[in-house]
């Protein structure tokens, strides 16, 4: 436009074009060498295309791209005519250039040469002969493609700037306005002059899309948080703590709810730390705690604890996050996980009264629990409770690039005990994309442990075996972790059923089971001993331990074991 010469438009890349992305050949592993993808833009910091990988559900920047759809000769001529018509318009009244047009122009400059044979394999879009029709049709198709890609690839904004560029800008602004109103209503801060030598913390916005039990968008949430990573231990804070209930206690509350036939209710405190007086002055001077402060969780728990004790609740001796109260023979039990509450009782009226009592904490009654700690909760008065983590498992698989893996029938195979650890390859501590590192293995095992603790005891043994080598994992350990994930991919719809028929009977009976494999570990000859305790037909506890044949020489023996050994050696 400025030089009077038409730019070369023959290599324009169509937004949303299908392409083939190849992996870096220098990275030697067993991953797939190539996969289909979609062009969604051009790299801003490094040379290459930004492509969406449907299999992994991520957007990456890469130069290893081939088979890109471009304009054919006839389409190029039509675009040239449109360009010349545009010149006449610009001479009179200059029109703004859209971001999409700018990215196409930059893609033309950054595009690498393609092999002639590759172009013949492309599928080109039909363009109407009418030039005016081309303009509207192209704009509509690009807009439709952009909407489709954005709906799939858009994640929660990481910064304020990203939120303002999002399609959901207005909803994020409304969420931020709601958060600021809550801060003002709770009197969290006041504007003061910064004291000389004071250490002020920065703040940032954190955005989160809240999903309901069925995976649909429930609401958009924005939090203004303090950058707690800038706090100095011993100056800005001294003790940190957040109340986290044991998963066994959560299941016990559901069991009690089943026994009493009173559905457990989910309570939430929308702005928990905002109602807590701060124990140190920060600028902008915080009169109360703010999300992000390292001591915010502890301060909130102190306030909740004092309020519950004042209301007549007693703290459990076995789990500090469980409180119980008995009034006129009616028992109410409350489980605490930071600012989420799980409440049940012997009568529905007593449970409803609990939420009415603690008005000073503004606890919101969310009704019967349908989702708690990432678990989907289903309740039937006749059948009891069912807990599953199908959505959490799907999210875990996506995060670790296993969304489309083939499933297996068991979480662990017999070959896991035949590994020669001396010749096994250790995982690297760092690496680029596609390289399996120690951190990736630890992240996968951590996710698997959470699933096993919540709803999937069937993978407990396999996860226990994988977690023993998190300090120095090998490629065999990584394969075991992947096998467990593949097993979950095929069984993600399974649920933990707590029908609780035994809980409805009096008295309750405790039944225990135990089993062991002798010296199954080929490396150190350790044996695995598992125990399962049941209360009626409701599982109450899972125990695991390890013993070695050398125990008979180093530890005291039980009388039956001593008698067996005496028989073996011929001492009668």
TrEMBL record:
Q: Where is the Reverse transcriptase Ty1/copia-type domain?
A: 186-412
Q: Where is the Retroviral polymerase SH3-like domain?
A: 18-72
Name the InterPro entries for this protein: DNA/RNA_pol_sf, RVT_2, SH3_retrovirus
PANTHER family in UniProt: GAG-POL-RELATED RETROTRANSPOSON (PTHR11439), INTEGRASE CATALYTIC DOMAIN-CONTAINING PROTEIN (PTHR11439:SF440)
Pfam families to which the protein is assigned, alphabetical: RVT_2, SH3_retrovirus
Natural source organism: Phytophthora fragariae
Instruction: Locate the region Disordered.
Output: 90-121
Kindly provide the name given to this protein in its UniProt entry. Uncharacterized protein
């Amino acid at each position: 436009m400025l030089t009077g010469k038409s730019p070369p438009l023959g290599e324009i890349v169509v937004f949303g074009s299908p392409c083939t992305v190849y992996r870096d050949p220098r990275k030697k592993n067993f991953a797939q060498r190539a996969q289909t993808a979609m062009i969604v833009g051009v790299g801003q910091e490094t040379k290459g295309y930004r492509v969406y990988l449907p299999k992994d559900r991520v957007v990456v920047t890469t130069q290893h791209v081939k088979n890109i759809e471009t304009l054919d000769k006839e389409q190029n001529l039509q675009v040239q005519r449109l360009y010349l018509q545009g010149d006449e318009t610009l001479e009179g009244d200059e029109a703004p250039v859209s971001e999409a047009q700018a990215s196409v122009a930059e893609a033309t400059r950054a595009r690498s040469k393609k092999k002639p044979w590759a172009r013949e394999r492309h599928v080109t879009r039909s363009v109407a002969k009418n030039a005016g029709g081309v303009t509207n049709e192209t704009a509509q198709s690009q807009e439709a493609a952009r909407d489709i890609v954005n709906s799939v690839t858009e994640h929660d904004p990481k910064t304020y700037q990203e939120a303002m560029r999002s399609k959901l800008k207005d909803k994020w602004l409304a969420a931020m306005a709601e958060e600021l109103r809550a801060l003002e209503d709770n009197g969290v801060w006041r504007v003061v002059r910064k004291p000389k030598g004071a250490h002020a913390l920065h703040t940032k916005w954190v955005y989160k899309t809240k999903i309901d039990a069925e995976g649909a968008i429930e609401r958009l949430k924005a939090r203004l948080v303090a950058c707690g990573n800038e706090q100095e231990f011993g100056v800005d804070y001294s003790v940190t703590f957040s109340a986290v209930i044991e998963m066994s206690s959560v299941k016990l509350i559901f069991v009690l709810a089943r026994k009493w036939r009173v559905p457990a209710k989910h309570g939430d405190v929308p702005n928990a730390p905002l109602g807590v007086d701060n124990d140190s002055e920060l600028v902008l001077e915080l009169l109360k705690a703010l999300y992000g402060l390292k001591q915010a969780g502890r301060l909130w728990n102190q306030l909740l604890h004092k309020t519950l004790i004042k209301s007549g609740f007693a703290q459990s001796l076995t789990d500090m996050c469980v409180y119980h109260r008995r009034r006129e023979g009616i028992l109410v039990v409350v489980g605490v996980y930071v600012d989420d509450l799980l409440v049940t009782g012997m009568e529905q009226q007593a449970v409803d009264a609990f939420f009415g009592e603690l008005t000073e904490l503004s606890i919101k009654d969310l009704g019967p629990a349908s989702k708690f700690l990432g678990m989907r909760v289903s309740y039937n008065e006749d059948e009891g409770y069912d807990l599953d983590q199908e959505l959490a498992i799907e999210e875990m698989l996506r995060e670790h690039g296993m969304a489309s893996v083939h499933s297996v029938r068991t979480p662990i195979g017999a070959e896991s005990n035949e590994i020669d650890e001396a010749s096994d390859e250790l995982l690297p501590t760092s690496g680029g994309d596609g390289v399996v590192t120690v951190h990736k293995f630890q992240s996968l095992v951590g996710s698997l442990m959470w699933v096993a603790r919540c709803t999937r005891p069937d993978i407990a043994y396999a996860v226990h075996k994988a977690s023993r080598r998190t300090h120095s994992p090998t490629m065999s350990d990584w394969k075991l972790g992947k096998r467990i994930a593949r097993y979950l991919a095929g069984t993600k719809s399974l649920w933990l059923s707590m029908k609780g028929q035994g809980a409805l009977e009096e008295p309750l009976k405790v039944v225990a089971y135990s089993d062991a494999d002798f010296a199954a570990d080929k490396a150190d000859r350790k044996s695995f001993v598992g125990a399962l305790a049941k209360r009626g037909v409701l599982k109450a506890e899972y125990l695991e331990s390890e013993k070695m044949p050398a125990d008979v020489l180093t530890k005291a023996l039980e009388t039956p074991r001593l008698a067996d050994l005496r028989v073996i050696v011929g001492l009668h």
